[in-house]
Each structure stands twice: as C-alpha cells, then as structure tokens.
Amino acid sequence: MEVRTRIDVFEDIFLVFLALGALVGIVVVSYTLYNAYKYRDTDERPDDEDLPTVGELPTGGKGGKKLFLSFGLSAIIVISLVVWTYGMLLYVEDGPDMDPEDAIEIEVEGQAFSWNYEYENGLEPGHLVVPADTPVWLEVTSIDVWHSYGITDLRVKADAIPGEYDETWFMADEPGDYRAECFELCGFGHSGMDDDVEVMSQDSYEEWLDEQFTLTIDLEDAAEEPFTDGFELELAHVENDEFEDDLSGTYTEESDEFENGTLEITEFRQGGDYDLVITPEDGDLEPVEDTIDFTSATSESYTLEDPDAAEEEEDDEEENDEDDEETDDESDTEEGDDE
Description:
- By secondary structure, the protein is α+β, with helices and mostly antiparallel strands.
- It folds into three domains: 1-36 and 59-97, no CATH class; 100-210, Sandwich (Immunoglobulin-like); 213-307, Immunoglobulin-like (Sandwich).
- The chain contains four helices and 17 strands.
- It has helices spanning 6-38, 61-94, 202-212, 307-338, and strands at residues 104-111, 114-119, 128-131, 136-142, 147-151, 156-160, 166-170, 176-182, 194-200, 215-220, 231-237, 248-252, 258-259, 262-265, 272-280, 288-294, 298-303.
- The strands form four sheets. A five-stranded mixed β-sheet has the order 3-9-8-5-6. Strands 2-1-4-7 form a four-stranded mixed β-sheet. It has a four-stranded mixed β-sheet with strand order 13-14-10-17, with no helix packed on it.
- The radius of gyration is 37 Å and the shape is rod-shaped.
- It is found in: Membrane.
C-alpha cells in the first residue's frame, strides 16, 4: 500500500484550491470585462434598448435560468470541494490505514526547555532519529507546562499538555535533517526549545539501531588490568516476564562476545533496566551485582577483587595516613621549640 506523506496531502489541497481560485477568477474577470464592453455607453445604442437603470433589481433574463444555473453550479463545486477537503484532512488526522508493525511509535515528552524521546523498544536517544518512507506515530505530552511540538518542514504539530497525550504522525519521503520546535510560549527559554530531527535511509537506520543496542562491559582486576580469568556474567531485563522474547543471557570468558577483558553484547533489541550479576570462579573474589540503565549505547566498567585484600589495603592506607599525620605533628612541635 502506498502511503502518502502529510506534505503530499497539503500540497494537493493547496494546488486544487489554487487551480479553482484561478479558474473562478478568470471567469469572473472575463465576464465582468465582457459586460463592461457590452453595456458601454455609445452614441450608436438604440433608444428603445432595454438597459438596466440605477437602483433597479435585475429580473434575471430568460426567467431566471441563468441565475439558477450559476447558483446551482456554484453549490455543486463548493460542496464537492468541502467533501473532498474533509476526506483529505481525515487522512491527515487518522493517518494511513496500515499494519501497526510497519510503523514506529515514539513518545515525546516536553519539559522546560527540552524534548525527551522514548521509542517503543525502550530506546531513549538524545534526539529524534527515524527512517525514511516509514510512518512515525508520536504521542506527545508534557511534565510541567503547556508546550507544542512541531516539525515545520514535515507539516506536523501536536500540543504537549501535562497529563494528556496528543497523537499525531508523519512520514519523511527522503533522508535529511530537520528541526523540531516548540510552538507554545512556555517561558524564558521558549526560543531555544528546539531539537534535531534526523531522517536516515532504512539501512543507515538499522546500523544506528545496532549501535544503540550495544552494551559494552569492561572487567578489570584490582591492579586495573583486564580481567580474563574465569567468570560467569548473567544479564536479564527486570521485566523479562512481560516480553515474548527472552531478554536474558549468560556469558563467560569463553563467549564469542568476550575479548581481552571486554564483553560486547549486541543481541538485545529492547531497552530498559537490566539486572547484572558477575560471579568469578575464584571464590576469593567478590561477586558484582548491579542494575544497568540500557536505553542507548552503554558502557560499564567493573572491578573484580578480593574484599579481604582490599580491606587490608585500605587499613594499610589508613595507617600510612596516620603515620604521616604524626610525623607532621612532630615536625610542627620541633619547629615550635626552635622558635
């Protein structure tokens, strides 16, 4: 099914109104000039010619047929134009009739004075990135005051009202860079409340998604060297039970994703919070537990160390600090005695 962009629809409406307006203008001006010429004042006009006089209402020649015909044609044209325009605007309002899986849904949240985006797959990029030739549905809201989200070049605008969602859609037919702006006066920073909108080709968009869904985990030992000894790393989405796909995985030092202390995970296609547990094979090393906010390309670093050794090292550092303080105090005392 061919999906028309909002730009195409509004251009069609504009061109139709322009053509009809030009046609009506030509007819009216031509008929006016014709009558001005026909009824011009000349000496050759017969005295008995039936001419209209000032203040006299026209009777409508031929029993009013011309008047009836002109009003009838005008009514047909106007009603047809209204019905056609209404249908076009319904398409703009309701969007294309297509499978929801072929479209992208994004929540846009306004706040003073910036825009936040959350994709249906959990991504939260810094600016809006969408593929060309793909319908994009926006659910626009606000967390503080009234805003209005709009992309002028794509003919899309929706109110951002706290506690409510205003749904709209758009589709860009070719890659390019656009600008989203706030169209509701919302405070001293209103003029700077704009954001980048990047439209990519489908292939470039897929590559961008791959980059966003990349989780890099660096493991190091107490000496800050890459940790390459035995371990087991478990990763699972905190709401894994609510998804059809299994958003969990287990990795070891023998996994293909692991190399020289770095684990690069690219298999997940759902953003959100992930629970992480790292269990070293060496029982003297302390396990690591954490929750990762994975809503864009993320890099985390963890140190696997012996807690007892770390505690002893801290005690040694404290003792050294105390010795240094005592030495400083003795030096100050000796200097005072010398004075």
